Please model this.
Amino acid sequence: MLRTLLKQENDYSGEVLDVTEYKYILETIVNNPYEGIMVVNEKGFIIMMNQAYGEFLGRDPQKTIGKFVGDVIENTRMQIVLETGKAELLQVQRINNHDIVCNRVPIRKGNKLIGAFCQVLFRDVVEFKNLAKNMDQLKLELQYYKSEFDKRQGTKYTIDSIVGMNAKIIRLKELLLKAGRTNSTVLIQGESGTGKELFAHALHNASYRRMGPFIKVNCAALPETLLESELFGYDTGAFTGAKKGGSMGKFELAQGGTIFLDEIGDMPLGMQAKILRVLQEREIERLGSGNSIPVDVRIIAATNQNLEELVKKGEFRQDLFYRLNVVPLNIVPLRERREDIPLLVEYLLLKLANKPGFSKKQISPEALDILVNGHCWPGNVRELENILERALNFMGESSLLKPVHLPLEIFSKNMNRKHDFTQFVSLKNSLEEIEHMQLEKALIATEGNTIKAAKLLDISKSTLYEKIKKYGIILKDDLSKIG
Ligand SMILES: Nc1ncnc2c1ncn2[C@@H]1O[C@H](COP(=O)(O)OP(=O)(O)OP(=O)(O)O)[C@@H](O)[C@H]1O
Model:
């Protein structure tokens, strides 16, 4: 019948097994030395027992044939399986002082139950427990690597995270989307804190590689020898202390995804030659191995240095520069797109509000005016983010970010600034505004010490208290509560 089945159900064009071969295969399976197998008829009499089961019982299997199963095997439940007709899988059964793990399965011919078989999967539950333990361990390891992998991917930013309506930023976003459709190498240049990494994340997420890994390498952070093994991995014995079995490098980890070579301008010349080779050949060689491994990786490089200048000085390879600069993205410094500052402030205040300990705050027009017009932003968006975070720390319970909450150097530079929005403010109001600011500033500078603050402002302590009351300044021991 099995033979007919094979003939009917298989389109398999190879040779069909004949009955003798089939019998041989089945016998080999039944007699395999790793698994005890026993078969009973519908009445519970043993009709087959393999050598492995016999050895485990310490009996000659042939001599068990025809005996009632309950007389041969301790704690057997074969009769129950025959009664219920239900399989019992992965059951623990105590035999010869061992807790074995077995399957008990009924055998049917049509609707009729004609017997059952038992399969000993583990001769001791300890074996099984060890396996389960190993599996738990593997599950934990898998979870760990998964979370590490997700962390490495860490591409939480998309094109929508790039805030800005400046024409150059819009053009850059368009370029980014176009580059997302290709596999071309991208070189992102821009001052520190302009958002180069943000653009790299967004590009990865805008590309077909978004489901693949995003692997970042800081080329400035490691000495040449370490950088090489970090990038290309190594084989067993590549150097003293090399892990047995070797290790994958970042290029291999980035297979199918993107590798982000940050601070490429700081890469040593020797390494530059090796990166050039990867760009040309699209393959890498682990340290200490003669074998090439093909890599399917998109390369994004970034630097805050002027690479062309470095090329002129002989500190950066010209050929590598050309290879990297296929799609150039030059990020505009913040001082050249001041019109984006209000948008960025709004976005960053929201972003900060999600951090523990912070809540949503508004910014006063005066403070915003200072941020837009009163500072040159050498640290770009990162500096703006830091300044806002610092201000939130100073503000305490106050809901409005005022100039006084800005860092001293920015605040003092802008003390006399005529705010753009100030059209016709009564003299009384503007004087009060300045007085209020000065009071808060002095209290911040003296960490809430009223004697020192009064001295700084050249007024008496009682006048200081009067004014504190007038402007509703909350004095708390904690400086951060001054609002
Ligand atoms: N256009 C933008 N919109 C929103 N957030 C931005 C923008 N540009 C930068 N940021 C934020 O500013 C911070 C600094 O950005 P990022 O780390 O990408 O700068 P970078 O140019 O890579 O800096 P570095 O050269 O120092 O490595 C990040 O928190 C980033 O999210």
